[in-house]
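Re: How this chain folds, sequence and tokenised backbone to follow
How to read it: Take the token row as a discrete description of the fold.
Start of record: The labelled sequence and token lines come straight after this line.
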Amino acid sequence: MKRKFYLLLIPVLLSVYAAGCVRSANPDVERGSFFQFQDGFPEVRMSSIGLLSETDEALINVTTDIVLGSLIYSTHDDVRSADVTIEIRILEIEGDFSKNIRRDFSVESSFEGSYLSQDVFTNNEEIVVKPGVFEVQVSVLDRTSGRASTRRAEAEIPDPSDPQINVTTVRLLAKNSSPAESDFFPITTYTVSTALDSLKFLFQVTNNDMEDPLEINSRLIQFNADSTAARPMNFNNYSPSTLPYIGVDMRNPQEIDAITRRLDQPGSVLIEFKYAMFERGNYRFEVETVNESGEQLYKARDFAIMSENYPAVVSPRELAGPLIYLMDRRDHERMMQIEDPDSLKEAIDRFWLSNIGNMNQAKAVISLYYERVEQANKQFTTFKEGWKTDLGMVYILFGPPWYVDRFLNTFIWSYSYDRTDPRYNFTFERPNMRNEFFPFDNYLLQRNQGYFNVQYRQIQLWLTGGILTTRI
């Protein structure tokens, strides 16, 4: 099934979710990028890590991923390509050091690769700087459209001549299972695909005046998080004591692995840990030690293991999951129990065709539905898939809101010119303020039994094909 992706970003929402697309407010915890894009602009993900070379030269490693489907392509001599410029600017936060690098690329891609996948073009730079703390700005210009996207992060490089103990930011890398792709590559996002074979965590410890051996404690932990799809709009609201209300419990993690290493020699030491791919969930790899003053030094890398093609939905299981918003819950549970991919795909096709009937109309409805699912993943991903959130459910069923009102902990989405109409004005509230320890916007729909008829009518528009002419 061919899919078209329309980037239906709501400008008001962009300002809200952009804050979650850069490094957390806690500089000790790296989380990579959440998905961030704007209609017609290059979709960019980046990470920057400070480190010392084997000769103690200060470096900043900058990895930039550009989603191929977000670029504008032209064809010359039967070759499809997009012209891209990457500009990297390094600015010392407390100093006058700066450095600018520009790279021009012609990115070739097939039609399928450029429009129907989440494949990325990756540029990796190691930039020589000096020890210090820097802001790293990466701008990607699509020279065909003239539009650019900018991302920012920070990088810190310890001074090798400083006798103090330092620990760099933890870097996350991954490797594919294919023997032809045996090298580890940086992960720039918070989410990690289950299609990958293994993960590697890399960090550097510096100590130039060591009288006693230095102990480095590392720990891999998993957070208990809600992973369920959003409940129907007419159900009771979530109880404050439940995990869906809390979202992710970061106070009581489960320890997966713990290792202590002793460094007996002074200097800069690069330390790495490798793991086979984990089960789906939310994780943190953390490192801590104690400096010469007895103060704790702490660094961590948070990440979430998501589905194979995330944020796209491609496999039969990925396509079946979001149907929970159109099906009876018991029927959906029986569908998800089908293990054979071919049988599951047949069950999905039967569901759509038995309801809509017309093959061509069914294809159009299917395309629209999964476009919405993918957009929900890109706009509302938190500790769980965007389509599973309350915002994602409403977005999939009703589409982009006509109006958005935002208050301190509240969203109001309006699908009516009458802003007081209770049937088509939905309120979302955030039980937990996003902060350096809880980096997610967990907005919950304020449910009401009066929404039963509203949701039922919308589901019928999907199941009859009426959604193509009547969106609400």
